[in-house]
From TrEMBL:
The record marks R9, T68, Q150 as: Important for substrate specificity. One of its GO terms (cellular component) is cytoplasm. InterPro entries: ITPase-like_fam, Maf-like. Belongs to the Maf family. YhdE subfamily. The lineage of its organism: Bacteria, Deltaproteobacteria, Bradymonadales, Microvenatoraceae, Microvenator. The active site is at D67 (proton acceptor). GO terms for molecular function: dTTP diphosphatase activity; UTP diphosphatase activity. Its cofactor is a divalent metal cation. Its EC number is 3.6.1.9. It catalyses: dTTP + H2O = dTMP + diphosphate + H(+); UTP + H2O = UMP + diphosphate + H(+). SUPFAM superfamilies: ITPase-like. This is dTTP/UTP pyrophosphatase. It comes from Microvenator marinus. Its main location: cytoplasm. Keywords: Cytoplasm, Hydrolase, Nucleotide metabolism.
Length: 187
């Protein structure tokens, strides 16, 4: 399979499931269209990423693309641009519930399927020192919402409703189930 993502976490999850993964990140800009909601945005991005990578293949391998955003107060929180941006995101999430939306897409030839998984996450009340220490660790800088639940960011999380792996960036059980269904349909 081809992974249309440079995410080491996504690659690792697919390899743990026994897939031989070829990484080919797409160059699709991650910018929401005007008035585009978070779910529509993630669905559009993963479709565009999958189509972009698929169009450059001369093989019949499945292409998997995904996109994850954190949503608070209808606002999309992607990867922070700098230290202050990460701090402001974490302050916004502190002591509150938010949503993490991951959409993924399988594409091969004329088959394209998209699914979205929404997970609710609640943070503990975070003091300024906890936030600064976490941001100084460097971990939040390449993560949607400025945290990684699978690392130190897991210490910020009080409660979760839904798929842990979706918050990491790939709802692995959904991904594998969809591929199995697609493979069965093509027989």
């Amino acid at each position: 399979m081809i992974l249309a993502s440079g995410s080491p976490r996504r690659r690792e999850m697919m390899e743990q499931m026994g897939f031989k993964v070829h990484v080919r990140p797409s160059d699709i800009p991650e910018i929401p269209d005007e008035n585009e909601g978070p779910m529509a945005y993630t669905r559009r991005l993963c479709e565009e990423k999958a189509r972009s990578v698929s169009s450059n293949l001369d093989s019949d391998l499945w292409v998997l693309a995904a996109d994850t955003v954190v949503v608070q107060d209808e606002k999309i929180l992607e990867k922070p641009g700098d230290f202050e941006h990460a701090v402001s995101m974490l302050k916004l999430l502190s002591g509150r519930w938010h949503e993490v939306i991951t959409s993924f897409c399988w594409n091969r030839a004329d088959v394209l399927r998209v699914e979205s998984v929404t997970t609710r996450v609640k943070f503990w009340d975070l003091d300024a020192k906890t936030i600064a220490d976490y941001v100084n660790s460097g971990e939040p800088m390449d993560k949607a919402g400025a945290y990684g639940i699978q690392g130190l960011g897991g210490l910020l999380v009080e409660e979760i409703e839904g798929s842990f792996h979706s918050v990491v960036g790939l709802p692995i059980s959904h991904v594998v189930r969809m591929l199995n269904a697609l493979e069965s349909e093509s027989k």
